[in-house]
TrEMBL record:
<keyword id="KW-0159">Chromosome partition</keyword>
<dbReference type="GO" id="GO:0003677">
    <property type="term" value="F:DNA binding"/>
</dbReference>
<dbReference type="GO" id="GO:0045881">
    <property type="term" value="P:positive regulation of sporulation resulting in formation of a cellular spore"/>
</dbReference>
<feature type="domain" description="ParB-like N-terminal">
    <location>
        <begin position="42"/>
        <end position="132"/>
    </location>
</feature>
<keyword id="KW-0238">DNA-binding</keyword>
<dbReference type="InterPro" id="IPR036086">
    <property type="entry name" value="ParB/Sulfiredoxin_sf"/>
</dbReference>
<dbReference type="InterPro" id="IPR057240">
    <property type="entry name" value="ParB_dimer_C"/>
</dbReference>
<dbReference type="InterPro" id="IPR050336">
    <property type="entry name" value="Chromosome_partition/occlusion"/>
</dbReference>
<dbReference type="Pfam" id="PF23552">
    <property type="entry name" value="ParB_C"/>
</dbReference>
<dbReference type="GO" id="GO:0007059">
    <property type="term" value="P:chromosome segregation"/>
</dbReference>
<dbReference type="InterPro" id="IPR041468">
    <property type="entry name" value="HTH_ParB/Spo0J"/>
</dbReference>
<dbReference type="Pfam" id="PF17762">
    <property type="entry name" value="HTH_ParB"/>
</dbReference>
<dbReference type="InterPro" id="IPR004437">
    <property type="entry name" value="ParB/RepB/Spo0J"/>
</dbReference>
<dbReference type="Pfam" id="PF02195">
    <property type="entry name" value="ParB_N"/>
</dbReference>
<protein>
    <submittedName>
        <fullName>Chromosome partitioning protein, ParB family</fullName>
    </submittedName>
</protein>
<dbReference type="InterPro" id="IPR003115">
    <property type="entry name" value="ParB_N"/>
</dbReference>
<dbReference type="GO" id="GO:0005694">
    <property type="term" value="C:chromosome"/>
</dbReference>
Length: 303
């Protein structure tokens, strides 16, 4: 392993060194001053960098992290990380934790970094927005990032949309994911279901039915369109049950019952009388035999 270390340094140089020959990268980390630390790129020892406490990504896939480390060994760091200076020889990540962790896996001892001046709130905002804009977060991580920007950075939804380059509807669709049960949120995080599946499930108010359709979607590997159809059918049945009756008002219903009783007495058999609010309906007079039919016909003076 030790024989490969010089090659690692050269690999990093090929990836970025040629671009930075005349850049501030020649400065040592302890020479970085606050007044020039807003735009400079510097080579900073990995041992002097703390991880970002505001990191929105909570899960790093080990396989893809190793793939990135292998790529860094060959290509170097193409995109510098971003840090803020806390004290001499002490920095804190703003964004680029995957590159930071992969660089350590690759055995590098230093990494190119933009050094910026930022307070805690600015750091949180930059970390969240930069990660969102890279579009490598899952839908739930994006939703949590949006929520943190709203709450911790005191942004309104319109302002948030402007910061991340999304319209208000898109932002709201992500935020609605946080209203889903923990089981479904975990499935989004673990990529068992997509954003499309989740958006369909949000439209079910009953949690038990929501979880039942979610389970069916996972077990049967249903498409988003299939889940949307199930949700639509479920909500249609609910609307039908909740639809107010178009029947008669109580007074009219009482009158129709009295008429039905009189008809039953007149024909000597049970009579069904139905009517709607527009006074349209039907009368049904059942009979049990040909003789019974003739009896009814005689009452009607038809024969």
């Amino acid at each position: 392993m030790s024989e490969n270390k010089p090659n690692r340094k050269n690999a990093l140089g090929r990836g970025l060194g040629a671009l930075l020959e005349d850049s501030p990268a020649k400065h040592k980390p302890n020479e970085i001053l606050p007044e020039i630390a807003k735009t400079g790129i510097f080579e900073i020892p990995l041992s002097e960098i703390q991880v970002n406490p505001y990191q929105p990504r909570v899960h790093f896939d080990k396989n893809t992290l190793q793939e990135l480390a292998d790529s860094i060994l060959v290509q170097g760091i193409i995109q510098p990380i971003t840090v803020r200076k806390l004290a001499p020889n002490e920095f804190q990540l703003i964004s680029g934790e995957r590159r930071f962790q992969a660089s350590k896996l690759a055995g590098l001892t230093q990494i190119p970094a933009y050094v910026r001046t930022a307070n805690d709130q600015q750091m949180l905002e930059m970390a969240l927005i930069e990660n969102i804009q890279r579009e490598n977060l899952n839908a739930l991580e994006i939703a949590n990032s949006y929520q943190r920007l709203l709450v911790e950075c005191n942004l309104k939804q319109e302002e948030l949309g402007d910061r991340v380059g999304k319209n208000r509807t898109t932002v709201n669709n992500y935020l609605r994911l946080l209203k889903l049960p923990p089981t479904i949120q975990a499935a989004i995080r673990d990529q068992q279901i997509s954003m499309g599946h989740a958006r369909a499930l949000i439209n079910i108010e009953d949690v038990e039915k929501q979880l039942a359709i979610f389970k069916k979607a996972v077990d049967e590997e249903l498409s988003v369109r299939n889940v949307e159809a199930l949700v639509k059918a479920l909500n249609s049945r609910k609307e039908e049950k909740e639809k107010p009756s178009k029947g008669l008002d109580p007074v009219r219903k009482y009158e129709m019952n009295k008429i039905q009783q009189r008809l039953a007495t007149h024909f000597g058999t049970k009579v069904a009388l139905k009517a709607d609010g527009k006074n349209k309906g039907e009368i049904k007079i059942p009979f049990n035999s040909a003789t019974d039919l003739n009896r009814i016909l005689e009452i009607l003076e038809i024969i």
